[in-house]
Design brief:
The structure holds two protein chains of two kinds. By secondary structure, chain A is an alpha/beta fold. Chain A is 26% helix and 21% strand. In chain A, a hairpin with a 6-residue loop joins strand 17 and strand 18. The chains are: A alpha/beta, B mainly alpha.
């Protein structure tokens, strides 16, 4: 990938990866850790107790409406307690110790997706953990996640989040059949809602042939132009997405992987338990995409791939641009994890608390045209209001500013700090208004 | 076994490898040809002046940073470049004390009073030189101080010749001679050809914002050409303007100082145009033959305002006024 500035005239442009190596299925880990709901989402309540034996596919926790999280392996629940999400939030999780045999709790599959009624499809998908948030009556109380309805567009995105990852695009290449099989039921469930398939530009023509009857739209294969929020902004037809967000534009974003796995779950009558992740970094000649069960500790992935983790290495869930560094090798693979990157200690980037020299590279690199240099300085010293006025909340946290900063300032962190200062103040004001 | 301690930080977990030191090292390298040519022309006097300016600046930077309780940041190389820039503005017979005073004004008043690199409002080199120019005009009058040298070029600064004796006097100078640096002036700051080579290198590598020098020099050319169009008998050609004095030096190395120049593309163009316009106007009507110093300082002052020429942020509703 080309990451350097070309003679100072052009912005850094980072191409998305095009490789499609074989997918390796990892053996089941001895222990999994399944995260439950994040703050702000519909709460999941555990329906199992410590010491209980569970089968693969058995519901572990469920919302009031019945949407569940399912056990990825067969074994015994050994702990229900706090864990850390990849981005560092403390939430509840359930630990399962693997048993001797693998046993499935199956549901009634949909034998004939063409013949089944839409209600059957909806209800089965719902019980398998794939609720349709555009039908509030199916969700019942609480819904999947808060957001203004109605949804007018469902966007299925088969473009990877960032360079170096090769997960979503695989559902256009070697796993194409699964996506084709899933889009039919999705289209029927969607009814009048517009369905859009977003694909990388180089695969667009092929996809138009394969997915006939579906609105296929191209996405540039360059980071950060492929950033999902920028793509959605383009789809919404205006440059305004960050306020109030995709839902405010009536768009529901589904990843190609989630859609394909929902289709598989319907066919097989088994809840989704796996996740594709691209592993890259230290000691690996080239990245490899593996299929692991949700909740697999990252140490298991490294053991299976023969990667030695040493002192001061940096382990990142996600890609090198927007991924989150982990402090714990027991951190689990979650549904939203597309990548696992390990930077050896010698290649770890150290940012500094250095003063800004006002060179302006960040400003010219910013895809949403924030005056990064000045806004980051405001954020650094906690001027949340001024950050907000200058548009800090439009930041998509792509990381290009910090990538080009010669002073190696932690610009993304400063932006986030500025944003959080503003949000904190707004929350306080809202609380005061209630009183 | 104890699990290994991992390195944790916020993303991105990659960097393009650029550094402040890299920028200033390259700026220093780009100045070296002109500085060496200056020394070759002016001999030991030139070498003494450059070494004294750089040396005094480095020592004063170290002292200032220590006094402010800051970690000494000589490593970023900025003071090396600024010391050399200041030295190249002086003529070879500048008294040693004047150089030291200049370095002190630059580092202490121009830079550290404002908080060091990244904090100052005016280019410290120009601020210091402007104060010296106003305070000790006699000592900085190159033609007067260089009277002892045996020269095979007209013993007068081209701009002084034009302002004192009219356009005919300016035609004594061959443009070719001026372009290769055959003129009375600072050590290296009038080596037009070598400065252009160094400046182009910096522009192409992205170590100076390329729009500023282009807009600056273009604006000097157009403004001077308009003057000449109006009254050819009173005003010299645009090329004479470009090849005399320190305008090329300023366009590539002084106006482009990151800290006090705009960062937005169109703001940079406006900044460059403003510099060029003011340079020619001050040269034509001002009390000082070379208005470049003051033109850039005035535009430095306007930088925060000019930098308001921005494109709107994507994804933000325009706040109700």
């Amino acid at each position: 990938m080309r990451t350097e500035r070309v003679f100072g005239f052009l912005k850094p442009q980072v191409a998305l990866s095009e490789w499609d190596g074989e997918v390796r299925t990892l053996p089941l880990p001895d222990r999994v850790r399944v995260p439950l709901s994040r703050p702000g989402r519909v709460p999941l309540r555990p329906v199992v107790t410590v010491g209980e034996k569970v089968k693969s596919g058995q519901p572990l926790a469920s919302t009031l409406s019945g949407t569940a999280v399912h056990a990825p392996i067969t074994g015994e629940v050994i702990r229900i307690g706090p864990l850390h999400t990849p981005d560092g939030l403390q939430i509840q999780g359930i630990d399962i110790l693997r048993g001797e045999t693998e046993d499935w709790m199956s549901f009634q599959p949909i034998e004939d997706a063409e013949g089944a009624s839409v209600d059957d499809l909806m209800n089965t998908a719902h019980s398998l953990g794939f609720p349709a948030p555009w039908k509030p009556e199916v969700l019942g109380e609480g819904g999947l996640s808060s957001g203004p309805l109605p949804i007018r567009t469902i966007a299925v995105i088969a473009v990877d989040r960032e360079p170096g990852l090769s997960v979503q695009r695989r559902y256009l290449t070697e796993r194409r059949e699964e996506l084709i099989g899933a889009l039919g039921p999705l289209q029927r469930m969607a009814g009048d809602i517009r369905l859009v398939l977003l694909v990388p530009r180089s695969l667009a023509n092929e996809a138009r042939g394969t997915f006939s009857g579906i609105d296929v739209q191209e996405v540039p294969e360059r980071y950060p132009e492929n950033h999902w929020r920028l793509v959605l902004a383009r789809l919404a037809g205006k440059g305004n997405l960050t306020i109030p967000g995709a839902r405010g534009q009536g768009i529901l974003l589904l990843t190609a992987e989630n859609v394909a796995l929902a289709g598989r779950a319907l066919r097989e009558g088994r809840p989704r338990t796996t996740k594709l992740i691209t592993v890259s970094g230290k000691g690996m000649a080239e990245p490899v995409t593996v299929e692991a069960v949700i909740g697999t500790p990252i140490s298991h992935v490294f053991e299976e791939l023969g990667i030695q983790v040493e002192e001061n290495d940096r382990i990142i869930l996600g890609g090198i641009w927007r991924g989150h560094a982990q402090f714990d090798l027991q951190a689990p693979i979650t549904r939203a994890t597309d990548g696992l990157t390990i930077n050896p200690a010698s290649e770890v980037v150290h940012l500094e608390e250095a003063p800004c020299i006002h060179c302006g590279r960040c400003v010219r690199a910013c895809p949403v045209r924030i005056q990064v240099g000045i806004v980051a300085r405001l954020g650094e010293f906690g001027f949340g209001e001024d950050c907000y006025q200058a548009g800090a909340h439009a930041c998509i946290e792509c990381g290009l500013c910090a990538y080009v900063c010669p002073a190696k300032r932690p610009l993304v962190q400063y932006m986030r700090f500025g944003k959080s200062c503003h949000e904190k103040k707004e929350a306080e004001e809202a609380a005061a208004a209630v009183e | 076994m104890k699990p290994p301690l991992l390195s944790v930080a916020v993303g991105p977990h990659t960097h393009d490898g650029s550094s402040v030191a890299e920028i200033y090292l390259n700026q220093f390298l780009a100045l070296v040809p002109a500085a060496v040519a200056g020394v070759l022309i002016w001999g030991m006097g030139g070498l003494r002046t450059l070494l004294l300016a750089v040396g005094a600046s480095v020592v004063l930077e170290w002292v200032s940073a220590r006094t402010r309780g800051r970690q000494v940041c000589l490593a970023d190389g900025s003071v090396l470049v600024q010391g050399l820039l200041l030295g190249m503005l002086f003529h070879p017979e500048t008294p040693w004390w004047l150089i030291v005073v200049g370095a002190a004004l630059m580092v202490i008043l121009g830079k550290h009073f404002f908080g060091g690199l990244g904090g100052y409002a005016f280019n410290p080199v120009l601020l210091s030189y402007a104060i010296l120019l106003v305070s000790w005009p006699g000592q900085l009058n190159a033609a007067k101080q260089l009277a002892g040298y045996t020269l095979h070029i007209p013993p007068l600064e081209p701009l002084v010749a034009w302002r004192s004796f009219g356009v005919e006097a300016s035609q004594v100078f061959s443009l070719g001679d001026l372009f290769v640096g055959q003129q009375i002036g600072g050590i290296g700051s009038s080596m037009i050809l070598l400065l252009v080579v160094g400046g182009l290198y910096l522009m192409l590598r992205g170590f100076v914002p390329w729009r500023i020098p282009l807009a600056y020099l273009g604006s000097v050319f157009v403004t001077a050409w308009l003057f000449q169009l109006g009254a050819p008998a009173d005003y010299p050609s645009p090329l004479f303007h470009l090849c005399s004095g320190i305008v090329v030096f300023a366009a590539f190395f002084l106006a482009t100082d990151f800290t006090c120049s705009p960062v937005n593309p169109w703001a940079q163009v406006v900044f460059g145009i403003g510099c060029g316009l003011l340079t020619v106007i001050i040269r034509t009507f001002g009390a000082w033959p070379d208005g470049t110093v003051f033109a850039v300082l005035i535009m430095n002052m306007a930088q925060p305002l000019i930098d308001k020429i921005q494109r709107p942020v994507i994804g933000v509703e325009v706040p109700a006024q």
